[in-house]
């Protein structure tokens, strides 16, 4: 797992200070926790837990049923340290370590002292992909908790997340995802990759020689040389000695860069967006954007410049938003300075946090990260399209683009339309890593034809249907070319529903491979069979043994096709009829044909077809379609064979 340089600094401080100052690990943990230095707090609380013998038998990942040994410290101190250690782990998103400590607090019956322990235990279970148990714990919290309604709201949101995540992990998007190694990877955070031609720019908190802390800096590299070079800026702003830089964005020519700059003073961190011009072979002095973006006393971060260079998307917690950090948009003048700014609106922003916008001007498509909408947990990627100034409801981009942890900083590859980059901490307990993703989505395309004349069936509709939810995802109406086309995004099971009035509807499963085989029910070219009410249709190859009504195995296979037709066309009601040749008495043939028709109907009903949609009728030899004898009076075997038939007739279309 990745660790920042902070770990070693803390260890040195702890052991060095221990010889001179009699300060307990618990007190040091409390101080760090108060200052929101949760990584440091966890370090000290873990030391305190070790001193209380709380560590020795704890297993990670936690196994229910493990026993904790007797402790020397008071139970109150033990549970306090256990809870604070859980909180510290959770607040720097180390859910794997946090989970068993919350469990311990609950298992030791200290829920009354720490009423949120079950909520956070459920959150950790969800983040660690134990969705069933997480939902159980969160439901229990909703039932028993009597405190702030906001916590109930959060628990219900997490329950919805569990249910959504289960489906996403079961039916992932058609993507391949892998970490980027080499110069792009370090023992700190690596994130916010931007590609311009053959140059890659990204942010990293890797340790720099002669610096006591691992600070965020912007790096440039070429994927071929395996080296990362840190960018340097002339910086005369306050806090320059400890200033950090990240999340670069470029206007179209690449001659102007926008970045986030931040520094910490005491317990307060100041964030703002700056720009720098490329001059004389280097990046010039940093210039802070005006208060249209950098409002006094509020943060502005994560700039993105549109493809025409006329707009800046950014993130801020300034007044006028929906709560937390919001996506904002500013118009830029010729010098790249903002002349205004406006909130992207409540369709895009939630009462929670939104971050890291990317806008595709050609598609009018905004991709950004949010904690406020239904997702898998942490920050998830969402996309929304803008139509004449109106944003569509944001759509979660699904797994594996998203994970149970934080997923941010989408950026496409400018040389491969099926490749893009993102940042995620899904494989780390502390840090964002860079990933490259390959889009494996595909198109299903073909023609819809009339089965009789093999011409395009104008006016037919083809729908792409989610066979799990029953929702229609897209629908096209067949025009002169007869063609249809759908984009398949995930491994969820989909159906094509092809229909036209006066024709039998077909419902065909979409193959996972993206190819549809010819001459099967998965034809890319699909033909529909016309029908007329009250006009019989012969079912070929329904065979019986002589003088018997029982169905032969090959007959059942034929009837299965009729079963599918009835499933695909639930609004039709049919008569299934059996007919005989002219040999034998009327009574004999009527009885035999009725039994045969009933045998067919019984089989079809046994396959799940509603008995109200089909009934049996035996006509004996009363409705021949060919002569049983030749004109000379001799037997006509071919004619009798045609008369020994099974038919179905559509009586009604509801």
From TrEMBL:
Residue ranges of domain OmpA-like in the record: 531-654
Top-rank taxon: Bacteria
InterPro entries: 6-blade_b-propeller_TolB-like (IPR011042), Bact_OuterMem_StrucFunc (IPR050330), CarboxyPept-like_regulatory (IPR008969), OMP_bac (IPR006664), OmpA-like (IPR006665), OmpA-like_sf (IPR036737), TPR-like_helical_dom_sf (IPR011990), WD40 (IPR011659)
Keywords: Cell outer membrane, Membrane, Signal
Record region (Disordered): 625-654
Main location: membrane
Entry-linked SUPFAM superfamilies: Carboxypeptidase regulatory domain-like, DPP6 N-terminal domain-like, OmpA-like, TPR-like
Pfam families the UniProt entry points to: OmpA (PF00691), PD40 (PF07676)
Signal peptide: 1-19
Compartment(s) of residence: Cell outer membrane
PANTHER family listed in its UniProt record: LIPOPROTEIN YIAD-RELATED (PTHR30329:SF21), STATOR ELEMENT OF FLAGELLAR MOTOR COMPLEX (PTHR30329)
Identification of the protein by name: OmpA family protein
Annotated source species: Mucilaginibacter calamicampi
